Amino acid sequence: MHTNLLLSVQNLSVAFDTRHGRVAVLDKVNLNLHKGETLAIVGESGSGKSVTAYAALGILDPAGKITNGKVEFEGRNLLELSSQEMRKLRGRDFAMIFQNPRTALNPIRKVGRQIEDVLQAHNPGMGAKARKEAAIEQLASVKITDPTRRYNAYPYELSGGMCQRVMIAIALACKPRLLIADEPTTGLDVTTQVVIMDLVHELAQAHGMATLLITHDLGLAADYCSRIAVMHAGQVLEDAPVATLFKGARHPYTARLMAATLQPGITLEKLVSIPGQLPDLRQPQPSCRFSTRCERCLPQCKEPGLALMPYSNNTSHLIACRNPL
Ligand SMILES: Nc1ncnc2c1ncn2[C@@H]1O[C@H](COP(=O)(O)OP(=O)(O)OP(=O)(O)O)[C@@H](O)[C@H]1O
Ligand SMILES: [Mg+2]
Predict the structure, then answer these.
(1) Per residue in 238-294, pLDDT tens?
(2) Fewer CB within 10 Å: C terminus or N terminus of the chain?
(3) pTM over 0.85
């Protein structure tokens, strides 16, 4: 095993029990993230990006069941830890930031206090004065001006961009080694998006922190990440360094995504040019869930045993396709 491996998701399958029966959402998802690396998960809405992150970090909705696989963080299988052990790791070793910071923050608690809450949970020995100073320092580190005054602000007194900065300050308060950012800039205006992404990138570099960026936006992924994993209907179809992918995507789905979205202002959210819909996951699926939408589909594409494998012996370029480009 690679010694620098930080997070390794192996054959992770997740199903949801719904009123309409069991829905097999994730199908043997594999992802590897090394120390200090930046990986993007890209895919259409409903492709399973958030479920992958939530399942890996133990915050999956109770209706979701992990039916297969392993999630190793620095060699420990997170799926075997108790919820108490997981709580210890969350915030300290890995942290998450979400879309809609305003709803993720506690509306009736001063933002400075909310940073202190994380510090207190993970450093119970820290004194009140040191904690307050550290919280103010955190606010300054995410470039909030006048942090001493802003410490006393409530979320409603801050703009969306400021709230996202506070979320980042909370997430990074204990210097985690992994940050998962799930659509961190959706809902913010374009200028603020760039400012927030630059900030995340800068802080990640400064702390040698690995980042998993979940996004609809292939352009954003390319700008801020070294590698991109492409998901479709709960399967990872291609995973490669950004330059490799842009030079020659091998999965027909990736190629179509790139052709369709790499125009300014077009993200997967607005994508209309990929024919067909994500399959209905309540029904049994063919081995490749993209096969029903794929113009290169061969009879064997429906057969079981699809796996993510190196493309032409290149171990950094993985692809799950029986008829690659
Ligand atoms: N609590 C739940 N109950 C039932 N199904 C769920 C639940 N949460 C997610 N799903 C299903 O899992 C699939 C993947 O959802 P997920 O939220 O991971 O998609 P996503 O790729 O993050 O999409 P988006 O880009 O819109 O955030 C979807 O088909 C969704 O309907
Ligand atoms: Mg999501």
Answers:
(1) 999 999 999 999 999 999 888 877 666 555 555 545 667 778 888 888 899 999 999
(2) N
(3) yes
Q: Helices (DSSP H) in the chain: which residue ranges?
A: 49-56, 83-89, 101-104, 111-122, 128-141, 147-150, 160-172, 190-207, 218-224, 242-247, 252-261
Is the Cβ atom of 90 under 6 angstroms away from ligand 1? Answer: no
129 alpha carbon – ligand 1 mean position (Å): 42
**Does 23 contact ligand 1 (Cβ within 6 A)?**
yes
Which residues contact residue 204 at a Cβ distance below 8 angstroms, ignoring those fewer than 6 apart?
A: 36, 38, 179, 210, 211
Q: Residue ranges of the domains in the chain? A: 1-93+178-281, 101-175
Nearest CA-CA partner of 23 in 230, 278, 252, 223 = 278
Among 22, 26, 47, 54, residue to substitute to test ligand 1 (most atoms within 8 Å of Cβ): 47
DSSP secondary structure of 151-171: TT--GGGS-HHHHHHHHHHHH
Counting ligands in written order, the one closest to the CA of 182 is 2
Q: Which atom of ligand 1 is found nearest the CA of 61?
A: 1
Q: Amino acid letter at 131?
A: R
Determine the topology of domain 1-93+178-281 in CATH.
Rossmann fold (3.40.50)
